[in-house]
Amino acid sequence: MTRILLPAMALALAVGCNSTVNGKVVDGLTGQPIMGKPADAGEEVQPNRLVAAAVKKGEDGSLQQNAEAGLTCMTFSSPIGQDGSISLSGLCTGSTAYQLSIEPDKNYFLGETNMFDQGMKADAPVTIKVWRAPNGTAVNILRKDGTTLDPVRSRQKVKSEKITDSEEMVHYPEGIKGVPMMEAGEYLVLSGAANADLTLYPLVNSDERMFKTEETEVKMQPWSYIGTRFTDDTTFERVGASMDAGKVVTVEKDGHIVKFIPTEALGEKGRYALWKDGSETAYLIDIGAKGEMPGAAATEGGENAGGENGGE
């Protein structure tokens, strides 16, 4: 009698490698299916795919490739249909877990289901929610089409002065230029913990101001101040953004956080600074309406001349 001995790895290939997962990939904000590719894309454009890669936890608790799963169980992928449908067959969920991702467009955050656990049994179709956002650190505007992410490039240095006859400080952008417009139906997308921690402040225009201390005297031409409204050089009030927190969506998974702020969440439309108190920079954004440039600094193009504030 002939006995055939199979290596342990070969035996592993056949264990639990018959799982099939069907379902849909949907937009976490709208609940609508994610199309595999734009409707007007040609046949040469390959659709996005849902990819499942075999993983296990390492000694440090991080996920790493699970080579023990065997070659035929390592990676599976399914094109995403125009109706958001996916179908992954042959998964070895009996012997390994799978980490999910979308390729080649990586600007989708799987903020709910990003794993198929070992032992998973897909008895019913699954719904995989994704949010249109980078998986790294960024500030973007998600446009009305639900797929276009425009980077916010209006980052400016923030300067500070001590207010006359006060112990308090006022903060303002060094320049005002390249301010993007966020229209109705669009979202400000704050990706990463540092950006999700930023706050929107109204950028308030003021006439000429004089900031005096015992050591310094700074004369400012008409300019815009972060969250501060002046009546005169010594009289001021702090103003915050009127925000409907119920319309803000925060998604967090495995240490990554993304915040979505819709235009409709702001009670007043206009120019804002996205800033954290004490930070050296701020992003400037027009939300719902184009902001007005301060006094004499305004030019026909709506920008400040040379990007400087006119302080002396």
Walk me through what this model shows:
This protein is mainly beta. It has 2 domains: 8-132, Immunoglobulins (Immunoglobulin-like, Sandwich); 138-307, no CATH class. 3% of the residues lie in helices and 42% in strands. The protein has 2 helices and 25 strands. The chain has helices spanning 8-13, 193-196; strands spanning 19-27, 49-57, 63-65, 75-79, 85-91, 97-103, 108-109, 115-116, 126-132, 138-142, 149-151, 155-162, 169-173, 181-182, 187-191, 199-206, 209-212, 217-220, 223-226, 228-230, 236-238, 249-253, 256-262, 270-275, 281-287. The strands form 6 sheets. Strands 12, 13, 14, 16, 19, 24 and 25 form a 7-stranded mixed sheet that branches. Strand 24 (270-275) and strand 25 form a beta hairpin.
Please supply descriptive tags for the structure shown above.
42% strand; disordered C terminus; elongated; 2 helices; mainly beta; disordered N terminus; 2 domains; Immunoglobulin-like; 3% helix; 312 residues; five-stranded antiparallel sheet
| Order of SSEs | HEEEEEEEEEEEEEEEHEEEEEEEEEE
Q: How would a crystallographer describe the biggest sheet? A: 7 strands, mixed
Structure class = mainly beta
Quaternary assembly? single chain
Q: What percent of the residues sit in helical stretches (DSSP H or I)?
A: under 10%
Number of strands: 25
In terms of DSSP E residues, the strand content is 35-45%
Distance between the termini: 99 Å
The shape, in one word, is elongated
State the low-pLDDT regions, or none: 1-15, 296-302, 305-312
Count of separate DSSP helical elements: 2
* Tally of structural domains: 2
Radius of gyration: 26 Å
Mean pLDDT: 89
